[in-house]
Amino acid sequence: MFEYNNETLTLEELQEVAELKGVEFDSFYNDGLKEGNIVEKTKDVAETGAPVASITPAPDVSASSSEDISLDVPFDDTKDKHNWLTKEIINPTTGDKTQQKDYSFFDKSDSDAVDDLSIKYPGFEFETTIMFGDVNSYNAVKATAPNGEEIDIEFNIGTEYTAPDTRTKKALDKRSKTGLKSLNSAEKNLVAKHDNINLRKENAYDSLISFIDKNTTAETDALYAKSRLETVKGAKKYLTEIAPDSNQLEEINNKFFPKDEFGKDVDIFAPKTESVKVFQGGGMDVKFASPTSKITKTIQPYEKELKQAFEELGGIEANPSKEQIEAKAKEILISQAKKDVQIKNGDQKLEDLDSFEFLSSDTKEQIKNKLELGLDNLQREYASKSIYLESLGSELATGKLRKKLDVTLQKFESEEYDYTDTEMQPGEELVTLESGRMIPESVYNQYQKDYKEYNEMYNNYMALSKDVVSNVDKGFIEAIPDQLDLVKRNYNGVEEFFVDAGLGFVELAVDAGYGTAKLFGDPSVDEQGVQDFKNKIQNIRESYRKDVSFDDAFSSLENFGSFAAQEAANQISIFAALSTPLGWGIIGTSSFGSQYQDMVQREQQIGAVKTSKAKKYFTSLGAAGAEVVFGAAPTYMILKNAKSALANNVAKNDIFGKGISDYVKNNMITTKGVLSVVAEGEGEALTTGFQNILNDRPFSQDANHSRFTGYMFGTTLGSVPVLKSTLVLFSICSTLGSDMLSTSVNSCRA
What we know:
This protein is mainly α. It has helices at about 10-20, 25-35, 110-120, 165-180, 185-215, 220-240, 245-255, 285-290, 305-310, 315-320, 320-355, 360-400, 400-415, 440-475, 475-485, 495-520, 525-540, 555-580, 585-605, 615-645, 650-660, 660-665, 670-695, 705-720, 720-750, and strands at about 1-5, 5-10, 40, 85-90, 95-100, 125-130, 135-145, 150-155, 270-280, 295-300, 430, 440. The chain folds into four domains: about 1-70 and about 380-475, no CATH class; about 80-235, no CATH class; about 490-610, no CATH class; about 615-750, no CATH class. The chain is built from 25 helices and twelve strands. The strands form five sheets. The protein has a three-stranded antiparallel beta sheet. α13 (about 400-415) crosses α14, α16 (about 495-520) packs across α19 (about 585-605) and α20 packs antiparallel against α23 (about 670-695). The longest helix is centred in the middle third of the chain and has 38 residues, at about 360-400. The chain starts with a strand and ends with a helix.
């Protein structure tokens, strides 16, 4: 029951009042509670001195409400507007989370910083400028407050502090353990440079924060709140647009709930056996020799997801059934599949944005910056809401107010408690409960006040819970990290091609140098330095658009073009190396080094199984052997044929003397050429297969990708003799035509 303007109404009658007034019930009800027009009447009391039906207990926090509570829970972070300049650090041992200052923003160029700051702090103005020191000048941003106050803040400071190299790390570690005096001159220079950059970034950070806080007004806060709301709405709209559509959802469902030709369910977790052919011979013979035996291996589909499901269901202690584990594994698979589709859709949407010719590059960048800010705001909003929700739930369940209400109710229900110790005011009456007990009116009024406060807290909890759950169910929260990653990437395909190709040469050289050192047992190699360098290479690659997967390469002509370009960029360094006298050694040592470094890196992961140096050495040796024998050998042969065709100059008399048919047979379509193409494709597949075995992966994993890439480049390079011969024949035919025409004209003149 409810009391509205001193009238007792049921919930249905109260809803009718809201309908007559033409307002939403939620707003009408919440506003009424705040203004005192509506009072939720508990079953505690009817009137002073009258019997009470019963005492209403505090709401159960774990219960869900069927009422349609608005999901738009307001969020105000104007007091925390600088949170985007912090990062969350998770302690790997305890799992505790802490917020630390993030100086990486000050690595940005001044022009990029202006775009970001203009969006994040509306009401302030930002422009690029130059700061002059005693000796040097620095890139900076001039910030202007609404009152005209100005400040210059340094940017483009550098990444030495946020990502110091290995030598600097060692010098810093040495200083912390043994003091500054223990450092040599080179180490002192590294530490001094690090400290200088650290100080400059701290100054820039503090200058920006203090300037904004000092000059923030109610108007700028209002602009900030409006801007934040707009960017969040834009982010939600974007996340809605990239959600899996009905066709994609149906495809996911069919994949994980397949039917056979009779309409019966197919067990996707049924173990499968795989036969691997073992060849004998060496060199090119390996690819075409008859198999002498087979290795049969049992593969458990989705083994990783099944293990994850088992652990999530409680592991050994809970002892979940096979059906429970498989059902949970399907949930994990479907969730990941939806996530993959969102990434694919988001990637395509950003690619489409980059291809819009009618938009300037600056406009495209501004759109991406706003989207990035919106996603970041949304992520931070729901992180804060989730923390507050947990805190609110704890307060409702075991907080001070809940305990106070529980004690009061216990006193109401206890026949032994008589309130004789309660001091009553003159003229204060008693309230009669349903049980017949008499309690002071002041005690009951305090209970009503506490209950109203608790009920408001409970309503806030339910509204906030629905808000968070709704956005989780829509996939918004889980999708944000991946979409933030995508929106920060560069979608310039031409630039990406040349960067990838250049990095391929660099990585080949690094792996070859590291591999040579490990192959011959050089103990002086800097493991961490190599890893840091390769991480930097990977970070550069990941700053561009995600690679098109082999499974998606054939979904559209555009995807195939992108796939072919990325494969070409990855292979250019290999082709170049094989064109040199030292090519075989470079490929072998590079493959050795890459495999060895991968094994070292895997061991550094939490819970990873350590392997011996001998294990790493011989596994890497096997990977290098497979790369040289199955991968490099056919590529070398096909490159050699292409080079010979380009270098071979055919004279006209060779064609006239031997005949055009013999020329075509001997130069354009040869058995050697066809076998080279086949060897390239199957060789790449065999390389992948044997390297999979060495790394305890299924033999066929990614084999089709490697096979297709091999055939693609094998066909391309194998076509060089055909194209060269075609051009020769075309040239000869053109010459013959001109000679015949000239002879005919001369005859007419005669």
